[in-house]
Amino acid sequence: MIKKYSYGTPFQTDTIITPLETSASTVEFGSILLSEGFQFTYKMADNDIVYGLGEANRGINKRGFIYDNDCFDNPHQTEEQRSFYAAHNFIIIDGTEHFGMYFDYPGKITFDIGYTLQDTLTVSCENADLNLYVITGDTSYDIVKQFRKIIGRSYIPPKYAFGFGQSRWGYKARQDFENVVTNYRENHIPIDMLYMDIDYMDSFKDFTVNEDEFSDFEGMVNDMQKKHIHLIPIIDAGVKIEDSYDIYEEGKENSYFCKREDGTDFEAAVWPGLTHFPDVLNPDARAWFGSKYERLISKGIDGFWNDMCEPAIFYTPEGVAEYKNYLKNDLLTSETFPNFDARTKAEGLANSPEDYKRFYHNINGKMVRHDKVHNLYGMNMTRAAFEGLEKLEPNKRFLLFSRSSFIGAHRYGGVWTGDNCSWWSHLLLNIKMMPSLNMCGFLYAGADIGGFGSNTTRDLLLRWLAFGVFTPLMRNHSAIGTRNQECYSFEHIEDFRHVVGVRYRLLPYIYSEFMKAAISDDMYCKPLAFEYSDDNMCRQVEDQLMIGNEIMITPVYTQNTSGRYVYLPEEMKFIKFMPNGTISETVLDKGHHYIEVQLNEVPLFIRRNKCIPIVNAAECVDDIDISSMKMIGYTDADYDLYDDDGISIIR
Ligand code: MIG
User: Fold this and answer.
1) Out of 39, 144, 393, 522, which could bridge 33 as a Cys pair, Cβ 3.0 to 4.6 Å?
2) Which protein residues are within 6 Å of ligand 1, measured from CB?
3) Contacts of range 320-324, beta carbons closer than 8 Å, 24 or more positions apart
4) Is the full-model pTM beyond 0.85?
5) Does residue 146 contact residue 26 with C-beta atoms inside 8 Å?
6) What digits encode the pLDDT tens for the residues 479-512?
7) CA nearest ligand 1 atom 8, residue
8) What is the mean pLDDT of residues 210-239?
9) Ligand 1: which atom is nearest the Cα of residue 312?
10) CA geometry: angle at 19 spanning 648 and 371, to 5°?
């Protein structure tokens, strides 16, 4: 059952697409205070779990920390960070009482889940203008399914997007891309996608290609297609200010950019230097920006990743002027000198809350200050792209995912989780984040495998890939300046060929389970407790996940170990994909076990009385040989395989 409560004048975010009557009663759980902004408070019992928040820090159980949902370009994903790139305002309280809550509010909102007081949950935001949805049900899983029904069906990517992709910030010229493909193909490591980061553009101008480095871009795209490689270019939020750059000119002409209070176009520095932000919250500007993706589609491109859409700001002219004043007038005379002020203030030029108050969106003729609706920018950039592509080819699926998101964006594209690091703790964070993202509708999701910032190691990359086999978005991505991270950059390339190959052996299952989940508003990736709700032990397990309805995975996420402890809620078949291509199968009883898993092995468990299809490894999705399909697991059971042409829109 879902009840809707309204406070003040809520902003129409478009998260919820099912109309619901507003309830006249008061919320039956906890208490609400409307004196200073909005505040919801609830006393948690010791054993209550709080699920949700999608792309957020820490565990599957969100208790014991404070989260600011305030989309933020945060490349420092350390344990104390409160804000990441997304704002997914959905939580579930699972315990003595059982309910889910969606806070439909477009600005910064804080979830204090037992941080200030260990037994107290407080959700608060500055303005008491929001809709609150309270969902009751028997289990958390049931609450998720009800929530998913009112937010609409999740984005469905084309089938090729379930292949493996290579990315790196710093590939600049056609030759760089060709080298990567040659290395993958010659080493027989499967691959379907090659990502183009900002360097492919002409001076970081959206929808342009650097003609010096890519003189025949269309020919290159074509050539790659022949090799079964999809090139996926990045699009950034800021449009470069440059006379005679037609996108800039058109946007200026038609008032499609975000404006300052005085009506001039707001300026923010990002990669191209000074830029304007397309006002994607304004339907006309959104349609205009979305129509520009056609420029690359017409060259044969069939997928994109949207970046910098928090929107990220390096600095603004206003911020720099204030900083200069401070240096000139205040720094040397400051009473607290010497201090860290100069440095903190310099760092504070980027993504400054002050800058988010300096610009406005035109929403139905009304100027709305950006900070009030900050968390909707990324969602609406994804929406711009999705709607633009839909208009262009209404019956074709495109690959599309974004960095910043809000619930609702799950209908338009997937997400990657932004700038993580090559740390073992970030592999674990990736594991824990996946089910939370699924609760919020983001099924097509993944992290930068191997880690984006800092230098990876061979063993970390292998372990991360062995987990990435199960994440719908499986992409190796790394930052410029870090150690080479492509799978062929390390010794014993055959180990990488094998681990990535397992993804392709499992692809019919992964695709089938993903599609069934997407079509029926279900989860592809679940916490164990969602399947085994009567098993108290499962409530504690955060490093094992259910993938689809048949399997449980137990990734290894620590260095220098040859295995790990696992918990089995029932008898299961322990499967290992061995490096020589064979599959080992052992039946293990319910309970605790230590399993051996070498660096070049991929483990999974098949649930009792279930089986899954596998095929022979292939080097790309197109080459998967369905006739090689066989069942493994409890092969007396039936498996309900979903398949389709992988490219037509599912209605
Ligand atoms: O300020 O385009 O998260 O994936 O490689 C950094 C360069 C901008 C951030 C993205 C990352 C991408 C990088 N971008």
Assistant:
1) 39
2) 169, 197-198, 234, 307, 403, 418-419, 477
3) 320/349, 323/349
4) yes
5) no
6) 999 999 999 999 999 999 999 999 999 999 999 9
7) 308
8) 98
9) 1
10) 90
